[in-house]
Amino acid sequence: MNKNIQHLYTIAQKEERLIIGLMSGTSLDGLDVVLCSFSGAGRETRIKVLNFETVPYSIDFKEEILTVFSKQQVDLAKLCLLNGWIGEQHGQMINECLQKWGIDKEDIDLIASHGQTIYHAPKRLHQLEKFGNGTLQIGDGDHLAVTTGIITLSDFRQKHIAIGGEGAPLAVYGDYLLFSNPTENRVLLNIGGIANFTYLPADGSLNKIICTDIGAGNTMMDAYVRTHFTNQFYDKDAFIARKGNKNNALLNELKVHDFFAQSFPKTTGPELFNLAFLDKALQVAEVGFISHEDLLATLNKFTADMIIDALQRTINAKENVVIYASGGGIHNPLLMEHLQASLPNVEFRDFNRLGINPDAKEAVLFAVLANEAIAGNASKENNLQGMSQVSMGKISFPD
């Protein structure tokens, strides 16, 4: 038997597995690196977060990604080069984290790498009849495995598409396994570049679980700041937006797109919610001159309003609903104020009460998928949103 296959078999049989989860989202803040201890799988999964760090991306790293990020036309040579380069860079970041934490790489069983999303193309967006859903994440798993010396699982989203999904959001699997609770209806709201949520009913009914993208999270605000403010990548603490006032004509036009009327579940990305989307809304609304402050105040309210609308459609008239929020958007105080003011009868609780740092949550969820792929026992009878729990992720060996 190949020694790597034997090693995987041994890992699957262990009582405790140490898995590093990686997440790099559309906000391009940095690489979330989380080290988790796992025992069991499926509904018997038990997890402890041992270490977590967000390794910030340098300006050069961000600018390299932005040369191909969410663009219909790119330099294919550059895309090929970035695929391996990002894998190596992420591997070096892991090595630095392990050194900082005082942990030997030999003690780590697996790496679960989301990769860097470059383009997300569900059929509802591209509308090309002969093609299905598509998505592309780069940061090659083989380069990552070789750089770290650790078995790596990557490219998780392709399996979801292959069996009929849109490749996102994948949070439903980990959310269900880790955070279901028989005493409260939970909404796990993630505000990253794109906002999404998982609704977990207290009665545990799988057919009532909803996991869906909502629309723009931070992506349009971040893109606007990158374009108009030198060496700034986001509106820190809503400093700019707080100086402005929302423009109602623009706000109303931003909300017109038919994506918002489509049923759940659905996915989207910065391929739709971008500065071209904003420019079109500005033209149709005939806004004329608008200050940076007023525009960011409007985008902030737009993000909040569409989250509120999606949540109200889901939790209206339901009792005992608690929202646990995560993602970069929770650090935008103006955005969170909008949400809480418009949902006064819903309790917002600190995600840390669930035992996981909210900034680490997405990286944790990919570690869960890796644990399921190696040690789980996917059941065709255990369906989430019509999708069986299946093994996701391609395996890369370090040698």
Helix and strand layout, with pairings?
Layout: H1 3-13, E1 17-24, E2 30-39, E3 46-56, H2 59-66, H3 76-101, E4 110-121, H4 123-126, E5 134-138, H5 141-148, E6 152-154, H6 157-162, H7 171-179, E7 185-191, E8 194-200, E9 210-216, H8 219-228, H9 248-254, H10 275-285, H11 292-315, E10 321-326, H12 333-342, E11 347-349, H13 361-375, E12 383-384, E13 387-388, E14 394-396
Parallel strand pairs: 1-4, 4-6, 7-10, 10-11
Antiparallel strand pairs: 1-2, 2-3, 4-5, 6-14, 7-8, 8-9, 12-13
Helix pairs in contact: 3-5, 7-13, 8-11, 9-10, 9-11, 11-12
Which range does the strand content fall in? 15-25%
CATH-derived architecture of the largest domain = 2-Layer Sandwich
Cα(first) to Cα(last) distance is: 15 Å
Mean pLDDT: 93
Helix percentage: 25-40%
Q: For the report, how would you describe the main beta sheet? A: 7 strands, mixed
The gross shape turns out to be globular
Considering the protein shown, what is the CATH homologous superfamily of the largest domain? ATPase, nucleotide binding domain
Order of helices and strands, N to C?
Answer: HEEEHHEHEHEHHEEEHHHHEHEHEEE
Rounded to an integer, what's the Rg over CA atoms?
Answer: 21 Å
**Overall SS class:** alpha/beta
How many strand segments? 14
Identify the CATH class of the largest domain: Alpha Beta
- The count of helical stretches stands at 13
CATH topology of the largest domain, by name, is Nucleotidyltransferase, domain 5
